[in-house]
Amino acid sequence: MRVAGGLSARGEEATPNHESPLASNSKKAKAVFTISSNGEGKKFWHRIGVAFVNKDESLTVKLDALPVNAELHIRDFPEREDAEAREG
């Protein structure tokens, strides 16, 4: 992923031959989740929004809720949901 100044997230200079993992998915919408757990250690994934990869490989994230644990997990939609997101 590129960040300000043309450097990758690891501090490496971005080159045209180096393809980011996000670049191959640049037209796909992504699901945004937060994970909570109960007192017994069981984890629950809550879908709280959607993210889109921009041309410069940054992400635009639109949230329907704010996570109280301040953690977001951004994943590719399963194929079925990805098609629905593009249509609607």
Architecture overview:
- This protein has 88 residues and is mainly beta.
- It has one domain.
- Helix content is 10%, strand content 38%.
- The chain has one helix and six strands, in the order ββββββα.
- The chain has one helix at 79-87; strands at residues 2-3, 7-8, 29-37, 43-53, 59-63, 73-76.
- The strands form two sheets. It has a four-stranded antiparallel beta sheet, with helices on one face.
- The chain is globular.
- The Rg value, from CA coordinates, equals 15 Å
Strand content: 35-45%
Helix content: 10-25%
Q: How many distinct domains?
A: 1
Global mean pLDDT: 74
| Poorly predicted runs of 5 or more residues | 1-20, 22-26
How far apart, in Å, are the first and last alpha carbons? Answer: 28 Å
Principal-axes geometry comes out as: globular
Question: How many beta-strand elements?
Answer: 6
Instruction: List the total number of helices.
Output: 1
Biggest sheet: strands side by side, in what order? 5-4-3-6
Q: What layout of secondary structure does this protein have?
A:
Blueprint lengths: L1 E2 L3 E2 L20 E9 L5 E11 L5 E5 L9 E4 L2 H9 L1
Antiparallel strand pairs: 1-2, 3-4, 3-6, 4-5
